[in-house]
Amino acid sequence: xxxxxxxxxxxxxxxxxxxVRSRIARGGMATVYLGxxxxxxREIALKVMHAHLADDPQFTDRFIREARSTARLSHPNxxxxxxxxxxxxxxxxxxxYLRGRTLRDVLAERGVLTAREAFSVIEPVxxxxxxxxxxxxxxxxxKPENVVLTDEGRVKVADFGLARAATAHTSTGDVVMGTVAxxxxxxxxxxxxxxxxxxxxxxxxxxxxxxxxxxxxGDAPIQVAYQHVNDQVPAPSSIAPQVPAALDDVVTxxxxxxxxxxxxxxxxxxTAVRAAHATLGADQLDVRPAAPPxxxxxxxxxxGNGVATEMFVPGADPGAGPVLHQRTRALPxxxxxxxxxxxxxxxxxxxxxxxxxxxxxxxxxEDAALAVLLRRRxxxxxxxxxxxxxxxxxLAVGAWYFADGPGAYTPTPKVTGMTAEKAQxxxxxxxxxxxxxxxxxxxVPAGTVARTVPGAGEDVRKDGVVxxxxxxxxxxxxxxxxxxxxxxxxxxxxxxxxxxxxxxxQVYDDNAPRGQVLDSDPAEGGQARNGTAxxxxxxxxxxxxxxxxxxxxxxxxxxxxxxxxxxxAQYSGQGKNDDEVPEGAILSQTPAAHSHVEPGxxxxxxVSLGPPMxxxxxxxxxxxxxxxxxxxxxxxxxxxEMAFGGFFGTVRFEKPNHRAPRxxxxxxxxx
Length: 671
Known about the structure:
It is a single chain. The chain is 29% helix and 25% strand. By secondary structure, it is an alpha+beta fold. The protein has six domains: 3-96, 2-Layer Sandwich (Phosphorylase Kinase, domain 1); 102-330 and 362-403, Transferase(Phosphotransferase), domain 1 (Orthogonal Bundle); 409-471, 2-Layer Sandwich (Trypsin Inhibitor V, Chain A); 476-539, Trypsin Inhibitor V, Chain A (2-Layer Sandwich); 545-610, Trypsin Inhibitor V, Chain A, CATH 3.30.10.20; 613-670, 2-Layer Sandwich (Trypsin Inhibitor V, Chain A). The strands form eleven sheets. It has a six-stranded antiparallel beta sheet with strand order 1-2-3-4-6-5. α10 (245-254) runs antiparallel to α11 (266-279). It is elongated. The termini are far apart.
């Protein structure tokens, strides 16, 4: 089925940067894709965690910590981790993309490696593991599938730390995951691991390279795990007699069931491997051992065939024996196109590739007591034997091996600051090859070497490859459109363009609503270096206006005064009586006079109804003096008009004489 139709990630661009091109492989924890870093214009490998793992917060946190830890490894034999991130529900790593094949592919093609070929693989693998162990990083999943042989002749170790990250995805805190063929006994029994667990797995892998088979086999993973716990890994020469005794000793030391009997870390094992390498001549290094028949006693399945499994091992009481659960998946049948040489027509049952030499018997058919004595002798005396070999042979052959032999190294010359062409010429003059990679730099001029791997002064094989990182100069980005956006959206656009937000000025603007971006500096569409600060001017809306004093103005005048400053009037209720403010005039206003408000604000006005109406006392017929006193006590003013001279002093008429505004004037006619 076409993966483009079934895999929704194909064609997607993660975090606006990593475009997914095609699927490379799918495993139990993740799927690996070929991708393109659109920012740096280079091919990358994208490892995307399966959704059921990415949804687990504990796994996600552990995965991020492991990615950061692995990224600290800078070693020519380690697959480099570039970046880690999460885009929605997609949790991913970006790594160095390598063209080549895995050690598993090589074993499938060749079956068995010569001692020289095995050394050319195991030494750089151990060198990479030693660098990790010095930083406190344990690989936990050393196996041929995680060893890459590039087209340029370099050996690279992949997937540092992912096996440890997978332990977070369990209900118990003490569960480990690994490929059962390479699990150290302590991982099976106690669920714990350290640098010596990597040493054990490397020893199993060396055994497999020398014999073409894994040391333990079985129909189910639990059977293989049981043998790791209870049986000593046989010497490679018991399977392939052409394997030198020095390599037997290395494998036996690395795969001791008791971790305390193994080399403490990959660095110690590498020393033993190099010492063994130095003792062998060309006749021993270049002979290719034959592989035994598939059914030989004490021998596991051929490399890459049978049952390969990921084993989940709950931690258990060491005295109680291992308690195992298994998850099995069938591997594809081994063989190049057309099937293995000598295979049955279906290509599924390879015929024996090895016929035992006369007098040879597999270790399982030896006398039982002798086998026990051999294992005990190797286990107890091996550490001392390796120490003696290392000291003696280092003095005898060390100068040859490290100066002119196959393991010779030379310091990497300093070429940083040179042009790429000049740096390549310099490396060629030192007998080294080179490969270039591009990278942006704000400090190193374009076309100049910014750094090398290995670094200046670090050891590199005399015919090895030095990776040159050549500067492309500062990364330049385009200022995105910002005008008219709300401030929050503009900030996000700036960050997405790998710029930073600079000063933000808040200014009044009569035409732009509050929070809208007016312009930027640098202006949108311009070019700037990665990380440049972009300044913004953001509208605060129209400038506020002062509310005029409307008290005592009549409605028309008040409305005109408000319109002059772009305000509007609204009225409250039916008005209110007031003894001082005449009817129809503005009695009060909200907001208050001289306060500042935004243009268009409505000012609430209260209109005076004038003084309240009260009853006028009836004083007709009373003497003018008495009448005046009565009216004044009622809150009125009095005006006297004399008729006929007011001779009698009697009030003849009263106006108004029923109701009148309090405080108004009552006119009395006196005769």
